[in-house]
Specification:
- The protein is mainly α.
- It has helices at 4-23, 29-46, 53-78, 105-136, 142-164, 176-186, 189-201, 250-253, 257-264, 271-280, and strands spanning 207-214, 219-226, 237-243.
- Among the domains are: 4-78; 176-280, Iron/manganese superoxide dismutase, C-terminal domain (minor pseudopilin epsh fold).
- The protein is 57% helix and 8% strand.
- A 3-stranded antiparallel beta sheet has the order 2-1-3.
- A hairpin with a 4-residue loop joins β1 (207-214) and β2 (219-226).
- The longest helix is centred in the middle third of the chain and has 32 residues, at 105-136.
- The radius of gyration is 20 Å and the shape is globular.
Length: 288
């Protein structure tokens, strides 16, 4: 019998997807009806004692990947280069209080609306300054603005991933190919989770813990970054990120970063890293 909390999580996720289907502009009605049929089958499975948690999560994964695939097709058509100085703060996708009690509304508001906005502003300023330097051929401040570009750009992009890595009723356990590669790369999911958590707890100062797909090594790896961009690697694609800057937790957890890290797992939504992995896996360089 599937535990009630798992039933609730998947049922809530299904209802959120139904809402997304209702406002979707890239699917016709027949395609929406097919997704609804699949969701109805999932709801039936959740109430059927003959199905396991794994069965239901696999069904949900298939539905999610199909929907994300349709959205990525639309995104490839819609996505255009961002002109210098035109980056925008992305929406959270849920309310500021949605992750309570694990992350408070006050923290989420300050973190998103203030701190992330400052990275967007800093990135835009650096890009415009470098554009002006190219046009005037005055590179006197090139070192400063290249540093600003790296710091604020990495801060903006990592936070954009961070918000989508979390949700109030998301998928709390990975499945499918990503889970298989976690097992291959780290031995087991529990071993991965322990290493990721310890990496986050031991970042010196402010920074991040990051699960990445390494196209050159053709496997997963756990990295850390001080600030947003120091002590990390090139040639990798972030899948799951955890912000351990003090502004991400101090108002609620004070100096207890380990407690924040441990509680963070309660709001991770693995459907987003799985979607990112599906697209990242298409990138594979010659191994050395």
């Amino acid at each position: 019998m599937i535990p009630k909390d798992y039933q609730f999580q998947l049922y809530s996720w299904g209802k959120e997807l139904e809402t997304a289907l209702g406002i979707s502009r890239h699917l016709d009605q027949d395609e929406k009806d097919e997704f609804q049929k699949d969701l109805d089958l999932l709801y039936e499975a959740l109430a059927d004692d003959n199905y396991t948690i794994q069965d239901c999560y696999l069904m949900a994964t298939d539905i999610h990947q199909a929907f994300e695939g349709s959205r990525s097709t639309e995104a490839r058509v819609k996505n255009k280069p961002v002109p210098p100085g035109k980056h925008k703060l992305p929406p959270l996708g849920y309310s500021y209080q949605a992750l309570e009690p694990y992350i408070s509304r006050e923290i989420m508001y300050l973190h998103h609306a203030k701190h992330h906005q400052s990275y967007v502003d800093g990135l835009n300023k650096a890009e415009l300054a470098l554009k002006n330097a190219r046009e005037t051929k005055n590179f006197a401040l090139i070192k400063h603005y290249e540093r600003e570009l790296a710091f604020h750009g990495a801060g903006h992009y990592l936070h954009t991933i961070f918000w989508k890595n979390m949700s109030p009723h998301g998928k709390r356990y990975p499945t499918g190919e990503l889970l298989q590669l976690i097992d291959q790369s780290f031995g087991s999911f529990s071993a991965f989770k322990e290493q990721f958590s310890e990496a986050a707890k031991n970042v010196e100062g402010a920074g991040w813990a990051i699960l990445v797909w390494a196209p050159r090594a053709n496997r997963l790896e756990i990295l850390t970054a001080e600030k947003h961009q120091n002590l990390s690697q090139w040639d990798v694609i972030p899948l799951l990120v955890l912000d351990v800057w003090e502004h991400a937790y101090y108002l609620q957890y004070k100096n207890e970063r380990p407690k924040y890290v441990d509680n963070w797992w309660n709001v991770v939504d693995w459907s987003d890293p799985e979607s990112r992995f599906k697209q990242a896996k298409a990138v594979s360089w010659e191994s050395y």
